[in-house]
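Predict the structure of Polygalacturonase.
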Amino acid sequence: MANFKTMTCTGVSLLLFFCLIPSCLAYNVVSFGARGDGRTDSTSAFLRAWSAACHSTSQANVYIPRGTYLVRTLNLNGPCRRRIEFRIDGTLIAPANYHAIGHSEFWIMFYKVSGLSVYGGTMNAKGHGYWSCRKGGKSCPQGARSIQFMWCNNVLLRGLTSLHSQRVHVGINYSSNVRVENVKIIAPSGSPNTDGIHVQNSRGVTIYGSIIQTGDDCISVGPGSMNLWIEKIGCGPGHGISIGSLGSSYKEAGVTNITVTNSVFTKTQNGVRVKSWARPSGGYAKNLMFSNLIMKNVGYPIIIDQNYCPDNNCPHQNSGVKVSQVTYKNVKGTSSTQAAMKFDCSYTNPCTGIRLQDIKLTHNDRLRRPAISYCRNASGRRGGTVIPRSCF
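Done. Here is the predicted structure for Polygalacturonase.
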C-alpha cells in the first residue's frame, strides 16, 4: 500500500508516495528539479534524487512521475544504506545527438547496489543516428548499453520497455540473484549489435515472461555465467538466444547450468545457439537444457557453431571451448534453412553428451526439400521421435 508523507530535504518539500517497499520514503525527481517536458536536461536532478534515496536510513524510493525526461549518462552508485526502489511511470529519453551518451559504455548504470527493484516505464535511447554511423563505416563512439547492472545483488527488473538502444538494451555483469520479468525490448531488425539482454560473469539470473524484438541476440550469455533460467520469451526478429560467443581469450570462465524453456522464436536468424571462436581457449559450456520450444520459420533452430566468425576475419584454428552435456527436448516447428539441426564442433575438442529428445523440425521450403541435420565432431544420443533424422 502506498505511503503519503511530506518531508523537507535541502529546503525542498517532497511528497512521498508510490512505495512498494513497506515503510519507505519516496524521492520524486521533480522535487529535485527534473522537468518532464522532453527538452530540459534533468540529469542532475535524477542524480540528486538518487543520492538522497541511497543515503536514506529508511528504505527508499526514487520516483519518476508521468512525463518525458531528457537525461544523459546516469551513474547510480551504491552501496546504499537500505533497500531501494527505482520506479518509472514516465519516459526517459536520451539526447538526440548520439555522442552525448555514445562515449560511455552505458546510459544508465546501477553499480554495487544490493536490494534493488526497478519498475515500469519506458526508456528510449534514440539509437537510429548511432546505427547509421556504424553502418556508414564512419569513426563512431563505442556506443552505450541502455541499462546496466554491475556488481549488483538481489535485483528485480519488472515491466520496463526499452526502445532503440545504441547497443545492448539490458546488461547484467558480475551480479547475482537477478530477476528480469515482463520487459519489452524493441529495436529494428537491422540495428547492429543491439542484444536484448546480455548476461556475463553472473549467477542466479532469471529472465521470464518477456518480449524481445531486436537486431542481434534476443538474449546472449557470456563467459562466467551460471545457474541461468530463461522462460516464456517471445524472441524475434533477432539472432535468437545464444550461449556465447565464447573463446575470445584463453583464460576465460566457463558457462554452466543454463535452461531455456517454454519460449517461441519467430523469423530469427538462429534458434538456440552455442557459438565459439575457432581459437585456443580454456573455456567451456556444459549442462545446457533447451526444452519446450516452438520455432516459426527460424534459421538453424538448433545450432552449435564452434567456427563462429561474423566478420570474415577468422582465426582459422580449432576452438578450445569444450561443449558437453547439452539437451534438446520437445523442440518443434519450421526451419527457414535446410539444416534444421547443425552441430559444427571443434576437431580438437569435439562436442559430447548431446541428447535429442522429441524433436520435430520441418523445412519451410517451397521446393519441399526435407530438413536435414549436420554433424561434424559431435556425438550424442536420441530418444523418442527425432525429425530430421539425427546425424549421430
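Residues 101-387 form a domain with the Pectate Lyase C-like fold (CATH 2.160.20.10).
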